[in-house]
Write a structure and sequence with these properties.
Layout: E1 21-29, H1 32-42, E2 45-49, E3 52-56, E4 63-69, E5 74-82, H2 84-96, E6 113-116, E7 122-127, E8 164-172, H3 175-186, E9 189-194, E10 198-202, E11 207-208, E12 212-216, E13 221-228, H4 232-244, E14 250-256, E15 262-267, E16 273-278, E17 282-283, E18 292-293, H5 296-299, E19 301-303, H6 315-320
Parallel strand pairs: 1-4, 5-7, 8-12, 9-18, 13-16
Antiparallel strand pairs: 1-5, 2-3, 3-4, 6-7, 8-13, 9-10, 10-12, 11-17, 14-15, 14-19, 15-16
Bound molecules: fe (ii) ion.
Length: 321
């Protein structure tokens, strides 16, 4: 059952009931051991919970994801959270739109609403804690003071621990259809896009520039999970620590244009990515952000290394044959 608590007053931006944040993702993989090693190395607390691995942030213990056993790597489902007063209106809205409400999948008892997105991804909408920040989170710049050696020895470098999940980027054969669905059914809004190639969506009660994003591919799949860290230094330090543990494939250090965040993507054991992200644009609940379309060649990234060809490969499409 979903935990209830920690609510903030709803902003009520817009007329339509809307989810406010990602509650949890559940990933299925053929072997849990590589997941345990990868996400532990990435800086998350990986805890065995029954047959699953729970992925929690070290500082607050929040469970952002679970990894369960399955025939191949795929997203089992994503849970979105809404305010308690929006739950019944969301249910009525979905029913009015003709969306089929499903039973919870085996092993995931819940009082949430279960639906599928246009690509067949299983989605739960449940009352739960607002995990998206209510304000722009501070980013620290570790300024070197005069008259002292400021950088530590490498052996004394701290372990990077993400503060929270920022967003999920999914491959889809139809970006416009995904935007239409998540906008109409769940109340997300378009933040920015590049034609039919990519689109970024935020939650209207105050969230990062994107909580969900969609990139065009021949088949559905996970591109990356993005994890927020508090300093640019942590993006680099996290990338180095992962490389030392064998996860040296990825892309970064760089800075995006759409979302503005500094990034380093680390390739996971299944060919998708986890991103260290810092200082992403924030869209407050009180603002009607104008979603704009941008030329792809001018808006993918501001600076960074050349994009490795494998970065845009949908590994799930390949394994699906
Ligand atoms: Fe990202």
């Amino acid at each position: 059952m979903t935990a209830i608590g920690g609510f903030k007053p709803a902003s009520r931006r817009g007329q339509r009931p809307a989810i406010h944040s990602i509650g949890e993702f559940v990933l299925s993989v053929p072997d849990l051991a590589p997941a345990q090693h990868f996400y532990g190395a990435f800086g998350l607390a990986v805890v065995e919970e029954g047959d699953a691995l729970a992925l929690r942030t070290e500082a607050d213990g929040y469970r952002w994801g679970r990894v369960v056993g399955g025939p191949r790597k795929a997203m089992h489902h994503v849970t979105f959270h809404c305010f308690e007063e929006d739950f019944e209106p969301l249910k009525h809205h979905l029913e009015g739109e003709g969306v089929r409400l499903l039973d919870p999948p085996p092993g995931f008892p819940s009082n949430g609403l279960w639906i599928r997105d246009p690509d067949g991804l299983l989605i739960e909408v449940a009352v739960g804690v607002k995990t998206s920040p209510d304000t722009k989170q501070p980013v620290a710049w570790e300024e070197t003071p005069s008259g002292r050696r400021n950088a530590p020895y490498r052996r004394n470098a701290h372990t990077v621990q993400p503060r929270r999940l920022s967003h999920i980027l999914r491959f889809t054969p139809d970006v416009r259809a995904a935007v239409a669905f998540y906008s109409r059914m769940l109340g997300l809004r378009l933040s920015d896009s590049s034609g039919e190639l990519i689109a970024f969506m935020h939650a209207v009660h105050g969230s990062d520039h994107h909580v969900m994003a969609f990139s065009k591919s021949a088949a559905p799949g996970l591109h990356h999970l993005s994890w927020d860290v508090g300093t640019l230094g942590d993006v680099g330090l996290g990338a180095m620590a992962m490389a030392e543990r064998g996860y040296d494939r990825g892309w970064g250090l760089g800075r995006h244009v759409l979302g503005s965040n500094y990034f380093h993507y680390v390739r996971d054991p299944w060919g998708s990515y986890s991103e260290y992200s810092c200082d992403i644009d924030y869209i407050p609940a009180t603002m009607d952000w104008e979603g704009l379309d941008h030329p792809a060649e001018d808006s993918f990234y501001l600076w960074g290394p050349q994009v490795p060809p494998e970065f845009i490969v949908n590994a799930e499409a390949e394994t699906a044959g």
